Amino acid sequence: MTRTDVPLDPYLPQCGNTGYRVSQYDLDLTYKVVGNRLSGTATIALTVTDDRDRFAFDLGDTLHVAKVSVEHGPDERSTKPVRARRKAKFTHRAGKLVVTLPGAVDAGTALRVAVHYAGRPRPIRSRWGEVGWEELTGGSIVASQPNGASSWFPCNDHPSSKAPYRMSITTDSPFTAVANGTLVGRTTRASRTTWVYEQPQPMASYLATIQIGHYDAMRAASDPVPITVFHPARLRREAAHDFDRQSRMLAIFGELFGEYPFPAYSVVVTDDELEIPVEAQGLSIFGSNHCDGRRGSERLVAHELAHQWFGNSVTLGQWRDIWLHEGFACYAEWLWSENSRGASAAVHASHAHARLTRLPQDIVVGDPGPDAMFDDRVYKRGALALHALRAATGDDAFFGLLRAWTSENRYGTVDTDGFVALAQQRTDTPIRPLVDAWLYSAPLPSL
């Protein structure tokens, strides 16, 4: 037997599990908006990576497991048929669902684990606030970064564990359910509608989402990929104006960062106000306060769109490298401004640097620690590091680097060392001093 509690990440030592890799999540869920009641079955296809007789999933304590069954498959190299599904023993406490197999299995064994559960989902309390499934005035929102996925389904809740998803959500018919991927089925029976989405590209668990509300769907663009905006009926005019430049953003970012990594993109505007927009794979979620009819939040629209490349397709393997998501998305804000007749990235960089000089210089961007990983200084200094690299190498080399980074690591897991190595391969300019100053030293370098 192998331990199931070996930490994958010192920033979130309680999250994630070892001993297996997930190849597919299949979520068949029913949600009653009134009463906030979630029930269903999560079927998780996985391959065991070492000899063991048990393993664990992350699952919030407000959800109660009724039954776990295991379909015991053969070794990966075998063509023998799958054995019948059998019940498995389990314990569920302190956010961990530990499953004990009917018998020990060898490394390479394929399993399909079905978890039947129900309860009233609540956000996970963390040092960064409450994250995960949350009720809205009429519906629900899922905002799971960094460790809230377990608030609504059993999973290996760490970004290094990426897998395709199929999600079926049945809810009251007046409501629309929006999830990651492509809508492949919609059926209505009596007073309920079932929405089925497929997300074939690998996805980290914190990026999985289901948004439920009274939404109208508006096709905002068809090129370079379909873009749909889901919005409350009362905000149709504002949403049409505020999000109508996303196709141009996609085209510009496609030139700068490489091909958009997913088949479509969606935006959800909730009827409630949100403190900040929410990132998910293939879609972004904004509050009604971000939709004012004056494009007052357009930099955030660009920021969330850029995460589709930096964060969703190319995903960090350890949370210490958060700047690879947020620094890049912040710099994308400046690049959008530069390419849409706004201020140049250099002007934005100068203003950001001036603001940072007035703040404490006690943060290391490349390893900020869990308490500071969402500190705005990580975002801005990360963006400034990219601007400094651009200045040192020139535009051709810099944007060639970004396109190579997103292409070579598409749907993969990355770290800062990998980015630095790729950057150095593509230029004769020594970049280690620049990297050390911007990412691994607390004092703010000169711009």
Please give the structural blueprint:
Elements: E1 20-32, E2 37-48, E3 52-58, E4 63-75, E5 85-87, E6 89-93, E7 96-105, E8 109-119, E9 124-126, E10 129-136, E11 139-143, E12 162-172, E13 176-179, E14 182-189, E15 192-204, E16 210-213, E17 216-221, E18 227-231, H1 236-242, H2 246-257, E19 265-269, E20 278-280, E21 283-286, H3 298-306, E22 315-316, H4 323-338, H5 345-356, H6 376-393, H7 395-408, E23 413-414, H8 416-425, H9 432-439
Parallel strand pairs: 1-12, 18-19, 19-21, 22-23
Antiparallel strand pairs: 1-2, 2-8, 3-7, 4-5, 4-8, 6-7, 9-10, 10-11, 12-15, 13-16, 14-15, 17-18, 20-21
Helix pairs in contact: 2-3, 3-4, 4-5, 4-6, 5-6, 6-7, 6-9
Percentage of β-strand residues: 35-45%
What would the CATH topology of the largest domain be? Answer: Immunoglobulin-like
Count all strands and give the number. 23
Can you give the helix content as a percent range? 10-25%
User: What is the CATH class designation of the largest domain?
Assistant: Mainly Beta
Protein architecture, described:
The protein is an alpha+beta fold and about 450 residues long. It has 3 domains: about 20-210, tricorn interacting facor f3 domain (Immunoglobulin-like); about 215-310, Zincin-like, CATH 3.30.2010.30; about 315-440, Neutral Protease Domain 2 (Neutral Protease, domain 2, Orthogonal Bundle), CATH 1.10.390.10. The protein has helices spanning about 235-240, 245-255, 300-305, 325-340, 345-355, 375-395, 395-410, 415-425, 430-440, and strands at about 20-30, 35-50, 50-60, 65-75, 85, 90-95, 95-105, 110-120, 125, 130-135, 140-145, 160-170, 175-180, 180-190, 190-205, 210-215, 215-220, 225-230, 265-270, 280, 285, 315, 415. Strand 10 and strand 11 (about 140-145) form a beta hairpin. Helix 6 packs antiparallel against helix 9 (about 430-440). It starts with 19 loop residues before the first strand and ends in an 8-residue tail after the last helix.
